[in-house]
Amino acid sequence: MWRDVDARENGRERPEDGRGRSGGAQAQFPEAPGEARDVLDSLSRSVDLPRGPQREKVRVRGRDYELSGTDVRVMTKVGAFRVVPANELRASNPRTPTRPARDIERLRKHGLVKTAPYVVGRTRTTLVTLTERGRELLEARRLPDGRDGHQRFYAGISKPRELAHDARVHAAYERAVEKLEERGARVRRVVLEEELKSDYQRFLQRGNKGRRDGRGEPERDREAIERWARDHQLPCHDGHVELPDARIEYVDREGRPRVEDIEVVTPHYRGAHAAAKAASGFSQYRAVGARVGGVSGSGRSGRGVDPRAAEDLLP
Questions:
Q1: What is the pLDDT of residue 312?
Q2: Rounded distance, CA 56 to CA 246, Å?
């Protein structure tokens, strides 16, 4: 069983034992895609797959699948965030809170997603990730670039020791999207930290492209780094660029492209790391147990957040 472990700080708290419990700190999330507010449409918009309630036959790479719009939205959400707790994808059964809903179980049997038990704080849940086959299905049916951006999809777990943190990013995203939609915004796509970091590393190594001398010296010019950060609307302090857990790209009510950068703050954030994140201006969401609540920050959208109002979101 995966445990609630975060390696971001050496002085991290010990995880709870594997027994956990199903009650108490259970997070409150939308009961199912398509009910009330469906933020999944912004992620599934980039693929040519079923969107209605009925299952339709889809043939990809010699394999046949029967997928509904709900199946597609679950897959695109999981692929966009790499890992999502099952209870945030579908309503869980209070009698069997760790058992995935039937639609997730069916996707698992088709080899499109993987599930694994996990303990967040003292709350048992199930984490869902895409398999390579699931990611290939989405990629094979991707619409041409330029239609609501290029939403990247991921398969599997990249950093097992940071699951305690990464499993909470999706919940923070939904909180942020609720606020954006209240202001008439339309979400285009979500960009994870690893995609931003990959872009940054390519910039740092641009001088080594095509070189064979093996010296591999990264870009060290502070002005160049600060210029890259400004071009990407990211904070930079003393030549160090701060990257958020996720960036929401959206169009505001007037049709202008904007971004909202979000950061999940766990109890493991301490010292200089915590100070840097606090000064970044990212919209911060505090994780307590299995819940995620808003803290404060300006985001990167140019709209400040009143810390006193944000306290209302704390669990």
A1: 26
A2: 32
Q: What is the distance between the alpha carbons of residues 241 and 235, in angstroms, rounded to a whole number?
A: 6
201-205 CB contacts, 8 Å cutoff, 24+ apart: 203/228
Question: Rg of the Cα trace of the chain?
Answer: 20
Each residue of 83-106: pLDDT tens digit? 999 989 875 555 665 566 888 999
Point out the residues of the chain with pLDDT beneath 50.
3-40, 290, 298-315
> What number of residues does the chain have?
315
Burial (CB < 10 A; 0-12, 13-18, 19+), residue 139, is middle
Residue 199 and residue 232: Cα distance in Å, rounded? 10
| Contact (Cβ atoms closer than 8 angstroms) between residue 89 and residue 76 | no
Across the beta sheet with 257-265, the strand order is: 186-192, 246-251, 257-265, 283-288, 291-294
Tell me the CA distances in angstroms from 56 to 36, 70, 117, 168, one per residue in order: 24, 11, 30, 32
3-state secondary structure 242-311: CCCCEEEEEECCCCCEEEEEEEEECCCCCHHHHHHHHHCCCEEEEEECCEEEECCCCCCCCCCCCHHHHH
CB-count exposure of residue 278 (10 Å: 0-12, 13-18, 19+) = middle
The distance between the two most distant Cα atoms of the chain, rounded to a whole number of Å, is 62
pLDDT for the residue numbered 27: 32
Q: Fill in the DSSP letter of residue 20.
A: -
| pLDDT given for residue 182 in this prediction | 93
Under a CB-based contact definition with an 8 Å cutoff, are residues 68 and 50 in contact?
yes
Using alpha carbons, select from 89, 108, 112, 100 the residue that is nearest to residue 39: 89
Answer yes or no: are the C-beta atoms of 172 and 292 closer than 8 Å. yes
DSSP secondary structure letter of residue 207:
G
